[in-house]
Task: structure prediction
Amino acid sequence: MSRFFEVVRRDLRLALRQGSDSLMVVTFFVLTVVLFPFGIGPEVGILERVSAGVLWVTALLASMLSLDRLFQADYEDGSLELLVLTPTSLMVVVMGKVLAHWLTTGLPLLVAAPILAVLLHMNSDGFTVLMLTMLLGTPVLSLIGAIGAALVLGARRGGVLVSLLILPLYVPVLIFGVGAIDAAVQGLSAEPHLLILGAMLAACLPLAPWATSAALRQALE
Amino acid sequence: MSTTESLPPFTGTALGCIRGGRAVFAGLDFSVAPGEALMLLGPNGSGKSTLLRVMAGLLKPTTGKLAWGQTALRDEPELHAARTHYVGHHDAVKPVLSVAENLRFWARLHEPHAGRAAGAVDAALARFGLAHLRDIPGKMLSAGQKRRTNLARLLAAPSPLWLLDEPTTALDRANIKVLETIFAEHRAAGGMVVLSTHQDVDLPGARTLHLDEFSVITDEDDDQ
Result:
């Protein structure tokens, strides 16, 4: 367990010292969302209708932007070999790295989302549910993204490849994330959608680190 | 390093490895007992690095098996990792972390008793002549200093088996001498050293393994 926190602490320290990466993700998120009112016009009705979808699609893309640095730098400087040779399950190391990734990318998105929701005239009934879907959904994005990031290690143009691999897997998160917000805005219960998102998170928590570990070992062969 | 005396020997039997469709070596046996050193020799591409990666557990051998005494490696991979230090071609030094932070992370990851690691980190840095650089970020280091930071892991978190892939690369003569002394001390305390090298490293009484003796001549070459 202490090894888990060592990895989290080191990755957070690296992210903070390099700074720009997690800032870039939020900036991308904000700028892209701000483009929509320019693109589709400022009518309140239309913006309100698309707000949930726009926020979630943009969050998916923003979280994907940061995936390449999850393992790539460690792969290039030899750290990954030593991480794999840690005298513990590789899943522990992977979980630590994914948690640090979520704290530096998912969490800033979660904080920025309600502000952007105001910009898109989202109905205020949807705000709580928006936060809940982000809270359940963004960790799933980091977990699934880690599999893709590990699979493309060593490939040229890994960034493009990872989006092809990962975006289809992000679709369920998108559907139920948007579904929950739409249900809440229309006065229906968002609970079923939230439960499914929670189930996705519960399934990804053990499965994604397991798959990521296998992919990392493969990358070093 | 008090428990190392009671360790069984680390052995490999009938090891063979195929990389990218080419058999790198086959029918290779080795054995390293506590206090012993094994030097891997051979021309470029003869499989020294591959064998070290197999020994470390990064690569699975295509045939044969590795074992500690009677216990096969694949039955207890975590125990093997705890007993082993692997130093590869890359130095795993993060540019934005200081020398001490880099080393402390790897030491604690290997051996989580942080209190012990804290003193050990400074001692290891001093031993490799890096004490004055402890707060310097990794990006300011020269190649030799990075290498020494990586090698300092060997002392910061003790493990009996050292697997070193050309550890003297980028080191000057004085530092190779330091490394030789450290090897001797490690072996005297019951440790084991396996290394590949192109330069002369003085390892008294080390056994040598010539990798080219185990190379495989295949019929595939006839196709060309």
About this structure: Residues 2-220 of chain A form one domain. DSSP finds nine helices and no strands in chain A. The mean pLDDT of chain A is 92.
